[in-house]
């Protein structure tokens, strides 16, 4: 049977339990049509790049599916009908990925970085006492205007 990676987005105002129920519903649908779900990952609530059906955030979920094409067609039909599903995409793959997906690896890496207190490459850290302003050179406002004030007429 062909192998697929399937990701769907659920509305932001749906609870996490409702998203888990949706995942279970879609898993049962695949299994009743002769397929199997190899891996399920709930990526959680994430910000969207742009608004989709008036939603700024969405619950993401990944299903690794081993199923015949009619089972997948029925899954996509059911998701199209369901009001809680904003978007979905199915990609046919040669083999299913073992272990956590890139999204979960990123989340783990971010959590470890937060525990260390490191905020990333743009963190300039504590800048300490930089001393009084006069020790750091003139400000832009300190320079006299080159042509006098703006109120004077130029001949």
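Sequence proposed for the structure above (155 residues):
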């Amino acid at each position: 049977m062909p192998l697929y990676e399937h990701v769907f987005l659920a509305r932001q105002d749906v609870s996490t339990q409702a998203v888990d129920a949706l995942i279970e519903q879609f898993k049962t649908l695949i299994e009743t049509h002769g397929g199997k779900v190899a891996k399920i990952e709930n990526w959680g609530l994430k910000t969207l790049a742009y608004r989709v059906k008036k939603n700024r955030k969405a619950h993401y979920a990944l299903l690794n599916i081993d199923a015949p094409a009619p089972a997948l067609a029925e899954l996509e039909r059911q998701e199209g009908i369901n009001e809680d599903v904003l978007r979905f995409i199915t990609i046919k793959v040669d083999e299913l990925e073992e272990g956590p997906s890139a999204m979960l690896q990123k989340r783990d890496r971010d959590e470890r970085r937060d525990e260390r207190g490191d905020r990333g490459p743009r963190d300039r850290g504590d800048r300490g006492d930089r001393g009084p302003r006069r020790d750091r050179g003139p400000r832009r406002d300190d320079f006299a205007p080159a042509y006098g004030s703006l109120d004077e007429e130029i001949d």
